[in-house]
Design a protein that fits this description.
Length: 578
Amino acid sequence: MNSRIKKFLSYYKPYLGLFYADMACAFMISAVTLVLPLCIRYVTKNILDGNMANAHQQLYVMGAVMLVLVAIHTICNMFVDYQGHTMGAMMERDMRRELFEHYQKLSNRFYDEQKTGQLMTRITNDSFSLSELYHHGPEDIVISMLKFVGAFIILINIDVKLTLIVFLFLPVMAVYSFYFNKRMNIALRKSKDRIGDINAQVEDTLSGIRVVKSFTNEPVEERKFAYENNRFVQSRKEGYKSEAYFSAGLIAFTQLITIAVIVFGGAGMLHSSLDLADLLTFILCIGILIEPIQRLVNFARLYQEGITAFDRFMEMLEIEPDIQDSADAIELAHAQGNVEFKQVSFKYNENYDYVLKDISLDIKAGEYVAFVGASGVGKTTLCSLIPRFYEITRGAILLDGKNISDISLHSLRRNIGIVQQDVYLFAGTISDNIRYGKMDASEEEIMEAAKKANAHDFIMDLPDGYDSDIGQRGVKLSGGQKQRLSIARVFLKNPPVIIFDEATSALDNESEKAVQESLEKLTDNRTTLVIAHRLSTVRNAQRIIVLTDSGIDEQGTHEELIKLDGTYANLYNLQLKI
Ligand code: ADP
Ligand code: MG
């Protein structure tokens, strides 16, 4: 916990100047609040009692003094509101950036388990509650303490007995406030979780909006959404109930105290132990004394909320990425492209069965290897182990003779290009998406890559050519077009090892031919691993590896495997018939 507090405070560091200025203003705000009733007391007691010679002049002087005080109060208030909040926002930005960078480091295994909507909530809502605490927290404490102590001193100086009466109310009031505040907190936390659930639901539905429409399942989605949405209202309702008790109760207490002071103070006046000026000042100061309670209770809420958010933030930040560079990771400038599997076994999770068992495989630089086998035997898994998307359970994978876990992730992944079946394109233009393969590529390089990927022609047919917007995730393009953009991206990246994971399976014959052609251009002088469903696309491979549940079943060229008349020949004959 100690290190967490240190971490919590560390976010103030870049803004210490602002922070101190903020505290100074908080101090001034409290001081002025306390001095003003004293001025009023002075005016009513000393100037207005008719004994002063230059009463008029004095009155104007005091008026001017109070004007100055009010001006200071206003300026400090504005500073706290404006700069204090800005400081909070900047701290929020810093934390958010740190979390975002961390998100990018977390492994695929983490993302297999998480809901994107929940992760989004953490980075937006949670950091906001923290910034509120960062900025209002210290300010609330300073203002509350000063006002409470200051008002107490003034009250006790005016009338001890009357002060005692006021203080009889305070413990009851404090207990009452904290009780309802606590209930408010619990409800608030619940409603936060509910917001996360709503986000997750919206994210899920909108991502799959095309599926929803095709099944005309909008009512189903609406029902799911309504369920989450109603749970949100329920949690808010509980919160508002406690809040109502809290606020109305606090006002009632203040009124009760005022009545008590008027009655008992009035009695004092009748006995001439108190004058009107004192009673007036006393009543003005009650407000100043009680305000800190409300402020502290508010602070307790901010604190609860902020600390919960901070805990959630730290929990996320403390998740060690299960795949990261080893301490003395090697930088691999440009690999030749020898890939070797040494008795590699892999399972996704301790509780799962092995997907791959004792796989040994030696792929030479520049070789063109195809993987075939039934769906679910682990072809995609096998290929995703080479860029270390998942950590192998046993054995070793070597790139140019070096264990991939000793190579820096950055340089390892820079040497591998992947084209997947479900291409992911980012919102933006065609050109932006191709440039993703090499961020500093020139327009000419982008165009050249597009030409090699057989994408140039269709791009030129678009209304804005390379500057055409492709829509969210590339919805404005066809499957084959998206696929060719993703190939252009890899052309630009120009890695020595490439992996095609069923890149053509979902395409029609025409697009398949275009993609196939560009693939073949890309394979020149590179180590190529192709996973293909359609055996027609693997015929040209130098080696075909047939995977089954028990591992590598057979390998060889198309002709050799046909001659062998085993699994591959069977698969091939089956597809020919279709
Ligand atoms: P293929 O590409 O040969 O069709 P995969 O490599 O995708 O097969 O899957 C192999 C096995 O691993 C399947 O049983 C699948 O259910 C499982 N699997 C795939 N991805 C994951 C994952 N992210 N988490 C857990 N299990 C997975
Ligand atoms: Mg697959």
